[in-house]
Amino acid sequence: MAECGCGSEALLAMPEDVLAMISSLLRACDLCALAQTCRALHCAITSSEKSWFAQCLLLPTSPPPHLLPIWRESFPSYLSLLRFLLSLSPLLGLWAHQNPELGNAVLALWGHLPSLLAFRIIPQELPSFGLESGPLLYAPVFEILPNPQGSSSPALFFLHGAGDSVHPGSVSAVHPDSNVLLLEVDAQSQDPSPGFVRLSFGDRRRVLDFVAKRVRIAVPPKLVSAPMLRYRAEDDALLEMRMSWLLDTHKVHNGRIDRRVAESNLGGTGRRKASDDSDTEVAGSRRKRQPGFSMAGYFGLMSLLGKSKSLNGTKSSSMGISCSSNGESKHVSLQDFLRSGDTIGLSLRGAHMKLTTYRAWPNMHGNKFALYKLPMQEPDVGREYAGLWGGTFGWPPGRASEDKPGKALFFLLLSYEEVDGQLLLIATKILEGTHYVLHPNGSAMFIVKVGEPTVEPFPWERDGDSCLVEVMHAYNGEGIANGYGFRYPGSKPGSMFVLQNGRIAFVWRDTKAVLTLERLNLEELLKRGERQFNLFILIKVLPLRTFFLFSEKRSSMKDKSLQFC
C-alpha cells in the first residue's frame, strides 16, 4: 500500500460528512478500491461510520432506513453490517418447490431485528370480506441471524420445526446469484473433503435425519407465541427476548455433533438404526433426548423439499442442472464423508445452478432437498402487469356467497415472454388455497396475447359495491382447462380485462368463469398475517423417514392420490 499523495491528502482533509457524501456516489467495490490507495486513506475510510452507513442505504435490497441504526447495535460497525447484508441479499425473494402441490411458496425477507426470515404461505380460503379484512396464514421455515463472533464467522441458521422446536445450524455459503437453496449437513473440514452433494440420495436423507433429530431444541413456553414480525410497538420486547434466547441457545447448543457419535449410529452397512433411547451428544454439550420426538423441524422442511417430478415429466438428468466439476455424479461413501471433519451439523447453502424454466417455473431436480427461486420480473413500460398477483374465482371479487362461505386464494406470478415474435403475458400458478388441486403448481392459468385487443364485452356492469365497472384495456388469450391428465392441461379461449381500480380479470369465453386478481405486497400481508405453529396445516405429520410423491392425476389431501414411499 502506497504512502499518501496530494490527492489523498485532499480527501483526508475533508470533514467526515463530506467524505460520506462522496461515498454515497460510489459503489461499495469502488470505495474499497479507493481505500487501498494509501494507508491513511484506508484507515479513514474503513473507520468512517457515515461512509458505510451511506453504502447500506444505497443497497437496493437493504432493510428500511429506519431499521439500520437498530441493526447496527448488533454489529461492531456499519462495515460489518454491510457485509452481512451483502452476503444474505441473494436469499431474499420468493422460493418454491413443486411438492407438496397444495402449497410450498416460501418468502424470505428481512426481520425487524437483524435477521433474515423465511415463511411458508399456507393455502387458504378468503374470509367473507376479502383478503384486506382477514389475516394471511403463514408458518416459519427458517431464520438466519448474524454471528456474534463477527462477520468472518458463519451466520447462524435455525430450521423451524412443527410446533415449538428449532434446529440450530449454520450458513455454509451463499452464491451472489443464488437460485437454489439447499439443506445439507456440513462436516466443516479444514482440508478438501468429499462434499455432502456427493453422497447418494439415501445417505443424504439418512444423515439429515440423524442430525436434525439430535439437535432439536424446544422453544420455552413463554416464547412459543412470541412474534417473529413486528406489527406494533408492543412487539419489540418479545422480539428482543426471542432473539436473545436464540443467540444464547446457539452459543450453548451449537448444533454440532461429534463425528464418533455419528459414525457409531450411521457407520457400518448403513442400515443401522439410531436408538430412540440414546443420549443426545452435541459438540460442546450433552443433553437428554426429549421423549416423543417426532422429527419436528427436519420433517417439516424435508417434506416441503421432497423429491418431485418436473412439470413436463422430464427426467432429472435432463433438467438443465449440470453436475459440478468436483465429480458430483460419482457417489462417495458415508464413512468417508463423516471422517472428513471432527463434527457435523445442519447447514444452509445458497447455490447457483444452470436451470431451465417453462413459463417462469423452474424445472426442478428430483434428487435434491432444495427450494428454487422464482424469477420475479419488475413492471416496466409495455410490461406493466409483471409481478405477484393474488385473487379468487367469481364475481364480485373476494366476496363469499351463502353457498360458499370462503373462496380459494390463488397466487399467480405474471411474467412476459416473447414467442415467435409475439409478446405473451403468462400467469403462472404458485399457490392454490383448496384441499385439492386440479393442476400442479407451475401451470399457466392463462396466457394473454398483449398485441391482440379483444372486442368481447366484460360480462358484468357493476362490482360488489354496486359501482360501474370501467374497462381500461382488454386482450385476447387462452385459459387453462381440462386436458390429458393432471400434468397436461388443455386450454380454452378467453379475454383479460384491465379494470379502472388496477385489478385484472380473466374471463373464460364459453363458461364466463372469471379469475379476478390484484397486485400483492406479500411482505405487508405477512406483517398483518396470522402465524401457524405447525408447518403442516393441510398435511398431518407423517412417520419418520416418510416422503411423499403426488400421482399424475388430481391430487388431494383427502383421497388416495397421495402415494407414500
Plain-language structure description:
This is F-box domain-containing protein. Residues 8-55 form the F-box domain. It comes from Dioscorea zingiberensis. The chain has 565 residues and is an alpha+beta fold. The protein has 3 domains: 6-87, Monooxygenase, CATH 1.20.1280; 88-374, no CATH class; 387-525, Lipocalin (Beta Barrel). It has 14 helices and 30 strands. Mean pLDDT is 79; it is low at 268-328 and 534-565.
How is this fold's topology laid out?
Elements: H1 6-12, H2 16-23, H3 28-35, H4 39-46, H5 49-58, H6 68-72, H7 78-88, E1 93-96, E2 106-110, E3 116-121, E4 125-126, E5 137-145, E6 156-160, E7 165-174, E8 180-186, H8 201-214, E9 217-218, H9 221-224, H10 236-252, E10 257-258, H11 259-266, E11 280-282, E12 285-287, H12 296-304, H13 334-338, E13 343-351, E14 357-358, E15 361-362, E16 370-373, E17 387-393, E18 407-408, E19 410-419, E20 422-432, E21 436-437, E22 444-453, E23 471-481, E24 490-499, E25 504-508, E26 514-519, H14 522-527, E27 530-531, E28 548-550, E29 555-556, E30 562-564
Parallel strand pairs: 5-27, 7-13
Antiparallel strand pairs: 1-2, 1-16, 2-3, 3-5, 4-18, 5-6, 6-7, 7-9, 8-13, 8-16, 10-13, 11-12, 14-15, 17-19, 17-26, 19-20, 20-22, 21-29, 22-23, 23-24, 24-25, 25-26, 28-30
InterPro entries: At5g39450-like (IPR040275), F-box-like_dom_sf (IPR036047), F-box_dom (IPR001810)
Protein name: F-box domain-containing protein
Region (Disordered): 263-287
